[in-house]
Amino acid sequence: MHLHASEKDYQRPVMVASLLIAFLMLGGKLAAWRITGSAAILSDALESVVHLFATGFAAYSLWLSFRPPDENHPYGHGKIAYFSSGFEGALITIAAIGIIYTATMDIIRGPQIEQIGVGLIITGGLALINLGLGLALIRTGKKHNSIVLRANGHHVLTDMWTSFGVIIGLFLVKWTGIVLIDPIVAIILGLNIMWTAGKLMRDSIHGLMEVADPDETTRIVELLDLALEKGVISGYHQLRHRRVNERIWIEYHLMFPETHSIAEAHEESHRVEDALHSLFLVDQVVVTAHLEPDSHEEAHSDRHPEPEHDSLSRGAS
After folding, report:
1. What is the strand order of the sheet 285-293 is part of?
2. Domain coordinates in residue numbering, the chain
């Protein structure tokens, strides 16, 4: 199972735009730094160097995640998204360390800034471009459950906030005449970037470790409980689920009365599966069901102990 062409059509253009704009950001910020000599602008440019590499890796990750399952990857290539998010977070951390170091050295040497007005105009224009791009990436990523686009969008917005911080610093320098404000602002921005990087790496670890989303667990359990109340099934257990980027994998054991034929149990199982598809996007849910008679429950429990979380098991015993 792989992404529909429509999903690719929506996701690829924004990633291509992100990559092209990353080149524009780097060129513009380096030009602003050469004109002004501002440590804050240089810090912003260093962050853009990292962003360019991160965006390139994110574009590759998005391309790879589109590939359908194959013999060596029967569950697809979706987990590359979590590597991409972690890689981007690590690169942002490196950029933050470079920003803090550069600003600290500037404080020691004594900062010198020229043509602040030109720097403000260039940096402000680039920040507005990043604002539009970042919001578009995050909106598209949420719509298509793409961690690659969301991570890249948050990185773009981090770049945007860095630029706005630079603008504030340059404005204060121009207003007060205190050039020391410039490297101090750069250090503050570097610390903020490190916080964003930590969040991206935490999300990456959660994805690779397949941490279950509590909200998704609640929705699935409530639906199965409703099926139990309506008599569609007589019980369920061994419920497990995980998300891999835009895919949700659900598996469980459903119990039915012994009077049901295999055809009847199969039909009822499909009713439950169809209801699960209605909870999420149809093409994003993969359900694996094991059908059992009620009398099998006790013997099954002896061979396969239930998880401690009792909400994952309901029905006859």
Report:
1. 285-293, 247-256, 235-244, 314-315
2. 5-208, 214-315
Q: How many residues does the chain have?
A: 317
Average pLDDT on 76-89 reads: 76
Q: Which fold would CATH assign to domain 214-315?
A: Alpha-Beta Plaits (3.30.70)
Average pLDDT, the chain: 77
Q: Average pLDDT for residues 150-162, to the nearest whole number?
A: 77
> What class is the 5-208 domain?
mainly alpha
0.90 surpassed by pTM: no
